[in-house]
Write a structure and sequence with these properties.
88 residues, mainly alpha
Length: 88
């Protein structure tokens, strides 16, 4: 059951990040889920471990702070992918 919730929340986070970064037309549902899950892990690491924001430990969780840090991490990931030329 935990994997299903992870995929659903990852899909939501990836979809919001793709809307923010204007890559929604280039991403399908699988890319949204991957960007959401990997972006949440990136958000937890970047904002929690590197910068030291305590609330970032909830990145990817189904809470307001968890979704916000998950989306921020996914936006950073999409920005990096745009720089690398994966999304245009």
């Amino acid at each position: 059951m935990g994997w299903i919730v992870t995929l659903l929340v990852g899909g939501l986070i990836g979809w919001v990040a793709s809307r923010v970064m204007n890559t929604d037309a280039q991403q399908g549902i699988i890319a949204n889920v991957l960007v959401g899950v990997v972006g949440s892990a990136l958000g937890r690491w970047l904002f929690g471990d590197v910068i030291g924001i305590g609330a970032a430990e909830t990145a990817g969780a189904f809470s307001l702070a968890g979704l916000a840090f998950g989306v921020l991490g996914a936006v950073v990931l999409v920005a990096l992918l745009k720089v690398l030329g994966v999304f245009r």
